[in-house]
Amino acid sequence: MRNAFADEMTRLCAGNQKPVLLSGDIGNRLFDKLKEAAPDQFLNCGVAEANMIGVAAGLAMSGYRPFAYTIVPFITTRVLEQIRVDLCYHNVPATVVGVGGGLSYAALGPTHHALEDLALLRVLPNMSVLCPGDALEVRACLKAAMRHDGPLYIRLGKKGEPVVHQSEPVISIGGSLTLRKGSDCTILAVGNLLPEAMKAADLLAERKIDAGVVSLVSVKPLDGEMLTRSFASSKLLISLEEHSVAGGAGSAILEWISDHDPSAMTKFMRIATPDAFYTQSGKQSYARQQLGLDAVSVARKIADRLG
């Protein structure tokens, strides 16, 4: 995803003087092409993320379209006050981009895990939240960011994620993408768990369970029309996210159910990480197995729920 992000940012900057990429002292070689194509539209703000958000706010107020980029915990929890006050309170068109969402940096320990960011960012007034599911969705999210007139958080994976789409989709803030329809259940996949959701749907098909898959790209605002339609047509909806069970996309859907369709509560199931620090060490794939987020575990949980 981060390679797609760098490539799409280069395209945007080469054809438009308004986007500006701010980096928190990471990915310097990753952005060599951007710096060559548009040298005035890249700023390394150093390991000073709070200041970087202030710079982003100033650029946005001056007519530019800043994208502030670094590893998720350093661009969300570390600078939450600056995001809240500088970006959200002033409602400026600045995009916060976090790389390494969920357990992408599982081997580096809890300091680099990102399992609370959606909860923290989605409660901020004026903030919208996008979680692309593959590299093509990353490109589409950046285009959506350029059309958006308020603060936005984009949560990326890391690198090497499977590409699910055949071509670049059109993404709107408040929208979702249906990749597969199913009559028995629908998996609402958040971000980089989209490929696991597709594998889980294949495994469920082997058990004669017809599972659909929706990429829940927009965690805030949610796609209410899709939720209404899916709850009406499916026996079970499942939110699947590499995020704490507390406060993430699953919690947002529970809020939607409470406000719009309380009868749907019995048809909803959450699969997420527990409300606890993950203290083991290993690759992301190992962490997913340990936490029940791999395709085999997801398919088993859904099959058990459907009986």
Description:
This protein has helices spanning about 1-15, 30-35, 50-60, 70-75, 80-90, 115-120, 135-145, 195-205, 225-235, 250-260, 285-290, 295-305, and strands at about 20-25, 40-45, 65-70, 95-100, 130, 150-155, 175-180, 185-190, 210-215, 220, 235-245, 270-275. By secondary structure, it is of the alpha/beta class. The strands form two sheets. It has a seven-stranded mixed sheet, with helices on both faces. A five-stranded mixed sheet has the order 7-9-8-11-12, sandwiched between helices. Helix 1 runs parallel beside helix 7. The longest helix has 14 residues, at about 1-15.
What letter string, H or E per element, gives the SSE order? HEHEHEHHEHEHEEEHEEHEHEHH
- Give the percentage of residues in beta strands: 15-25%
Main sheet, how many strands, which sense, barrel?
A: 7 strands, mixed
Helix count from the secondary structure assignment: 12
DSSP E strands, number = 12
Which structural category do the helix and sheet elements fall into? alpha/beta
* Main β-sheet, spatial strand arrangement: 2-1-3-4-6-5-10
* Low-confidence regions: none
Determine the N-to-C terminus distance: 36 Å
Oligomer: single chain
Radius of gyration: 19 Å
Mean pLDDT, rounded to whole units? 96
- Which descriptor suits the 3D outline? globular
Q: Tell me the helix content.
A: 25-40%
Task: Give a nutshell description of this structure.
The protein has 307 residues and is α/β, with parallel strands linked by helices.
Write the layout of secondary structure elements.
Blueprint: H1 2-15, E1 19-23, H2 32-37, E2 42-44, H3 49-61, E3 65-71, H4 72-75, H5 80-89, E4 95-99, H6 117-122, E5 128-130, H7 135-147, E6 152-155, E7 177-180, E8 185-189, H8 194-206, E9 211-215, E10 218-220, H9 224-233, E11 236-244, H10 249-260, E12 268-273, H11 284-291, H12 295-306
Parallel strand pairs: 1-2, 1-3, 3-4, 4-6, 5-6, 8-9, 8-11, 11-12
Antiparallel strand pairs: 5-10, 7-9
